[in-house]
Amino acid sequence: MMKILAIDTSSSNASVAILEDQNVLIELNNEDEKTHSQKLMPMIDEAFKNIGLCLDDINLISCGVGPGSFTGVRIGIATAKAFVDSKNIYANGVTSLESLAYNLNTEGYICSLIDAGHENVYAGFFHVVKDNDFFKTVKSDLAFLNLKDLSSFLEKNLSGNKHTIYFVGNAIFTYKEFLQNLPFEKNFAVPKQCIVSSISTAKIGYTKYKNGDYGNSNVLSPIYLRKSQAELALEQSNKI
């Protein structure tokens, strides 16, 4: 049995889970984004103590790599890297968009949308299929885009085929009226499915491992999809 520690701090919710294969042993959450750096290690320690395990029992670390909060993503990755390097544990990085898609626990064509402000979104398109007892992604595409470009993004990935699209993520509530008017058959996730979950992050990491896709701490790199405000400000100042 493989034991997986999953960490995701890419959103306002910091999430920690420990799974044995695909069976959830424990999940803990902290919804105060400002305290992720202070609460993450105590959450991990609490999770281990509650189920009588320790880091030495972990075989794989699956970590959320964004997109999302620039600071939050770095907090989770730094912690995961420290564990992986200190204990020589296998690792996998999982995007927050794919993790959201797996919250639905279904096959099909899924569009994950994270609100990036000013009618911009982080968008992920996923074709998910079930292979025996595992869900796996057979096609994916990630982008940072304006809402007006979402329809063409979806059309490109559907390649002219007509399928129902499942929408998930916090942006589906912010922009629901816009999404309802898109020319696709569609379903919308419920609120609890639109929170990035370390359980989904763990299951994706485990599936990747079973397919031979894993590595050391070098595989844990942030995926931002857009430049930070600091980078944009620096570019602007250099033009002056």
Describe this protein's structure.
The chain is of the alpha/beta class. The protein folds into two domains: 125 residues, Nucleotidyltransferase, domain 5 (2-Layer Sandwich); 91 residues, Nucleotidyltransferase, domain 5. The chain contains eight helices and ten strands. The strands form two sheets. Strands 3-2-1-4-5 form a five-stranded mixed beta sheet, with helices on both faces. A five-stranded mixed beta sheet has the order 8-7-6-9-10, sandwiched between helices. A hairpin with a 5-residue loop joins β1 and β2. It is globular. The termini are far apart.
Brief synopsis:
The chain is an alpha/beta fold and 240 residues long. 35% of the residues lie in helices and 30% in strands. It folds into two domains: 3-96 and 196-226, ATPase, nucleotide binding domain (Nucleotidyltransferase, domain 5, 2-Layer Sandwich); 104-194, Nucleotidyltransferase, domain 5 (2-Layer Sandwich).
Based on CA atoms alone, the radius of gyration comes out at 18 Å
CATH-defined architecture of the largest domain: 2-Layer Sandwich
Low-confidence stretches: 230-236
The CATH superfamily of the largest domain is ATPase, nucleotide binding domain
Taken as a percent bin, the fraction of beta residues is 25-35%
User: What is the fold-level CATH name, i.e. the topology of the largest domain?
Assistant: Nucleotidyltransferase, domain 5
The share of residues in helices is: 25-40%
Structure classification: alpha/beta
Strand order of the largest sheet: 3-2-1-4-5
CATH class of the largest domain: Alpha Beta
Tell me, what's the shape? globular
Q: How many discrete domains?
A: 2
Number of strands: 10
Instruction: Give the SSE string.
Output: EEEHEHEHEEEHEHHEHH
